[in-house]
Amino acid sequence: MNSMYEEAAKAVTISDNGVHRLANQAQMLIMAQEAVAECEEDLRIAKEMLRKLEQEEIPSTMQELGVENFTLTNGAKISINTFYDAKISDENRGEALRWLHDHGFGSLIKTEVSCKFDRESYDEAIALTHLLKEKGFDYVDKETVHPMTLKTFVKTQIESTEEDVARPPKELFGIYIGKKAKVTLK
């Protein structure tokens, strides 16, 4: 049986030109990946520099000099405006929400009730939506298929060798079948 594979391997010939072209393309892929990673790091650094200049250094210097605003020789005007940012941490969530309620700001809080049902509990999920509707609750009835589950389903159905298998319509499911090179560096 090994001789059958050896014969098949001998029958496959790749021209030197094709191998060189493939090697060049693989090298270009590696260079493109490195360029994207470098640009992403440069962007992260630039955003941090922008934040530091906008929110720390220039306001501090202007306060130190007693300047509220000024104009550069190129006509650009610099002034300091107050901005507010807030975020309730997970560890403070309960206490912060209680504070809002206690101080008459409970209307700021939006409550979303969500229930997850497994695949076998479809009937129970439908029954709950009917109950919510009867009670007058506005609810979100969202049915989804997890992206990886959908990809696996599509692959399985398309690659199936059975003739009577249901093939998902490409347009309906936005199916694209293509090739992708993967490079793993040492």
Overview of this protein structure:
A two-stranded antiparallel ribbon has the order 1-2. The two termini are 35 Å apart. A hairpin with a 5-residue loop joins strand 1 (69-71) and strand 2 (77-79). Among the domains are: 1-85; 144-179, no CATH class. It is mainly alpha-helical and 186 residues long. The model has no long low-confidence stretch (mean pLDDT 86). The chain has helices at 2-11, 16-65, 93-102, 122-134, 147-159, 170-173, and strands spanning 69-71, 77-79.
Task: List the topology elements.
Blueprint: H1 2-11, H2 16-65, E1 69-71, E2 77-79, H3 93-102, H4 122-134, H5 147-159, H6 170-173
Antiparallel strand pairs: 1-2
Given helix and strand content, the structural type is mainly alpha
End-to-end separation: 35 Å
Order of helices and strands: HHEEHHHH
Shape descriptor reads: flat
Mean pLDDT: 86
* Proportion of helical residues: 40-55%
Number of DSSP strands?
A: 2
Radius of gyration: 30 Å
Strand order of the largest sheet: 1-2
**How many helices?**
6
Low-confidence stretches: none
Proportion of β residues? under 5%
Largest sheet: 2 strands, antiparallel
In short:
The protein has helices at residues 2-11, 16-65, 93-102, 122-134, 147-159, 170-173; strands spanning 69-71, 77-79. The protein is mainly alpha-helical and 186 residues long. Among the domains are: 1-85; 144-179, no CATH class.
Features:
mainly alpha; 2 strands; 54% helix; 186 residues; two-stranded antiparallel sheet; single chain
